[in-house]
Design goal:
Helix content of chain A: 40-55%
Structural class of chain A: alpha/beta
Number of domains of chain A: 2
Number of strands of chain A: 10
Shape of chain A: globular
Distance between the termini of chain A: 43 Å
CATH architecture of the largest domain in chain A: 3-Layer(aba) Sandwich
Largest interface: A-B, 27 and 28 residues
Strand content of chain A: 5-15%
Oligomer: homodimer
Strand order of the largest sheet of chain A: 1-2-10-7-8-9
Radius of gyration of chain A: 19 Å
CATH topology of the largest domain in chain A: Rossmann fold
C-alpha cells in the first residue's frame, strides 16, 4: 500500500465518483467551539464512500478477469457500491446477503443490477462456503469490504480530496476524524494525508461498545469486540481491525473516539438541520465526536467525514426527536 | 440585467458561496424515464440559494453605504442569507419579521448576528412603514428578495454552474426546471443559460394553486394568486411575478409546471432516500415536476434545482410517511 496506488485509483475514479463537498455551518462551529468541516461522503453514489473502493477494485481487474464478474458479501453499503460499479463496467455482480437483511437493501441491490443470493444465518448456512463455490464455478472475483489494497486505495481518494479542500480553505493543521469499521476509509485517508497534507492527522470514530480500533490503537495490538450486533451504527461494526488496515492506522492515526449512540443520533439530527444532508448513525459518529468530545481536540479547525446516509426512515425520525430536547447543547443526552 | 452582471457577481461570490454539486440517482432516472440531474442548492450556505443573491447585493454596495448596514423583510430563507452575508462583510443586518414567524427561524436569524425586529401582522402593523423609518433613521439599504438586479445576478451564478456542470456530463440539450417564487432564481438562471448554454431552457415549477408565474407565462401578462397562505411550500409563495423577473422569464422560459402538494412531499422523501439531501417542500417542486409530470418533457436528460432545505422536522416526517405507500410509482398520490 502506498500513495501511488491511491493516485492511480483517483485517475480511475475520475468522472465516475463524485468529488463530494466539504460543508460547514456556523451553528456547528458554535457547538464545537472551533470550525468544523464536514466531508459529505453520504452524497457519494449509492449514498456512501463504499462506491469509491468498489470502483477502484473493479476497475483495477484485468479485463478478462473482470468480465467473468465480481462477488461480495454484504448486507449494506458495500453491496450497493459493488453492484453499481460492476453495472457501470458492464460486468455481472453477485452479492451474498443474509435472508433477514432489510428488504429495502435487498431490493436496492437488485435494482442496481446485481444477482442477490440469500442465505439463512439462523439455519447455519455458511456464506463463505457459498461464496467459495461461486468463485470456483463461475470464476468470480471477490471484492472484500476493506482488507484489499485496491479497496483501501479507492477509499484513500477521499483523503486526496480532503487535502485539496483543506488547502482551499486555508487549513494546514487539524485532526481529521473518520468513521471507522474495518478501517478501509480511515487507513486510506491516513495514507493520502501523510503524503499530501502531513499537518492533517486521522483519528478514528466508532460506536461505544464497538470500539475495537480505538482499543487496539491504545494497546498497540489487535483487540476484538465482545459483541457484533445491537448497534444502531450497524454499518460500521466489524469484529476487529483489518489485517491490512490496522498496521497503517497504528503507524499514522491518533487516538480513537468511542461515541455513545445517543450522540450519534443527535449528530444525525444536526446534519439534518444545519447541513441539509442525510447521515446514518454509523456515518455520523465522527461529527458527534467533534461536537461532543472536544476535550482531546486542539486548534481552530477539525475535519470530519460523514461516511454514509443509508438510514431507515424510522431511525431517522428517532434521531429528529432528539431536536425537541437539547438541539444545541454539548455533552451526552441522558 | 445582463450576463456581465452575473459574471461579475460570480467573481464576488468566489470563495464565499459554495459550488453546489449536481447529483443524480439511477433510482430517480427510472421513475422519470430519463436521466435526472439535481442542482442541490439546499447545500448552499444557510440552506438555500438565497445566500447567493444576498452576498451579491451586499458585496455590490459602495463601502460607505454598506457600512451603514442592510435591511430585509423576510420570515425565512432570504432573512438568513442576508444575515450571514452581512456578518461576513462585518456590517449590521436588520431583519423585519412577523411576530408569528416560526421561533426557530427567528432564533437562527439572530444567531447569525442580525437584529430582528418583530411586527404584529394581526394588530395591523405595517412592515413597509417600519422599514422606511429604519432606512431613513439609520441609513440602511434594503435588500429585496428578488426584484433587485444584483440579487438576480447572484442567483444567476447558479446558472453559470449548471452550464459548466451540464457540459462536464455531456448535456447540450435539456429543460432546466427551477423552483419559482418571485422569479429571482429562475430569471437569473435563464439569463446565464441563454448566454452560456443556449440548448438548456428554464421552466418554472410552482405549487398548485400558487402558480402565478406559470399562468402569467401562459397568458403573456401578469396574473396574481388568489390566496397567499395555506401552502406547505410557503417559502416560494409570492403574490405575483416580479417586475424585473417576469419580462426575463417571458422572453426566455418555457411553459411552467404547477405541482400538487402531495407530489412535493413525495419528492422530499425521494431526495432523502435517493440523494441523501434535505429538501423543503417548496424546494422540491422542480424535482416533483421532473418525476411525476414527464408528459411535456422531451429528450434524455432533465435538470432540476432543489432550491432549499429549511424544513420543520414535523413536515419532514409527514413527507417520509409517503414512503410507506408508493415510493417508486409515478403520478399523484390520491
Amino acid at each position: 500500500m502506498n500513495i501511488d496506488m491511491i493516485r492511480a485509483a483517483a485517475e480511475r475514479l475520475r468522472g465516475h465518483a463524485r468529488r463530494t463537498p466539504l460543508l460547514s455551518s456556523p451553528f456547528l462551529d458554535e457547538i464545537a467551539g472551533r470550525r468544523v468541516w464536514i466531508k459529505a461522503e453520504c452524497l457519494q453514489h449509492t449514498g456512501s464512500f463504499k462506491f469509491r473502493g468498489a470502483w477502484s477494485a473493479v476497475s483495477a481487474l484485468p479485463d478478462d478477469v473482470r468480465a467473468r464478474g465480481v462477488l461480495a458479501f454484504s448486507s449494506g453499503n458495500h453491496a450497493q457500491g459493488v453492484a453499481l460499479a460492476a453495472r457501470a463496467h458492464g460486468v455481472p455482480a453477485t452479492i451474498i446477503m443474509p435472508q433477514d437483511a432489510p428488504r429495502v437493501k435487498i431490493d436496492n441491490t437488485r435494482q442496481l443490477g446485481a444477482e442477490v443470493i440469500l442465505y439463512d444465518r439462523a439455519a447455519g448456512e455458511d456464506r463463505d462456503e457459498i461464496g467459495a463455490v461461486l468463485e470456483a464455478e463461475r470464476g468470480l472475483t471477490l471484492v472484500k469490504p476493506y482488507d484489499d489494497p485496491q479497496v483501501i486505495a479507492g477509499q484513500g481518494t477521499t483523503g486526496l480530496e480532503i487535502a485539496e479542500q483543506a488547502a482551499e480553505v486555508g487549513i494546514a493543521q487539524a485532526d481529521v476524524i473518520v468513521c471507522c469499521g474495518g478501517g478501509g476509509l480511515s487507513s486510506g485517508i491516513a495514507l493520502a494525508l501523510n503524503a499530501e497534507a502531513p499537518g492533517l492527522r486521522v483519528r478514528t470514530a466508532e460506536p461505544e461498545d464497538f470500539d475495537d480500533v480505538a482499543r487496539s490503537l491504545h494497546s498497540g495490538r489487535v483487540e476484538r469486540n465482545t459483541r457484533l450486533s445491537g448497534s444502531l451504527c450497524d454499518a460500521i461494526v466489524t469484529p476487529q481491525p483489518g489485517v491490512l488496515t490496522f498496521p497503517i492506522l497504528r503507524r499514522l492515526a491518533g487516538p480513537g473516539f468511542a461515541v455513545p449512540e445517543a450522540d450519534a443520533l443527535r449528530a444525525v439530527a444536526l446534519a439534518f438541520t444545519r447541513l441539509k444532508v442525510v447521515a446514518e448513525p454509523g456515518g455520523a459518529v465522527a461529527l458527534a465526536a467533534a461536537l461532543f468530545q472536544p476535550d482531546t481536540l486542539a486548534g481552530d479547525d477539525v475535519i470530519v467525514t460523514i461516511s454514509g446516509g443509508n438510514i431507515d426512515p424510522d431511525v431517522f425520525q428517532r434521531a429528529l426527536s432528539t431536536l425537541e430536547t437539547a438541539p444545541y447543547s454539548r455533552g451526552s443526552a441522558a
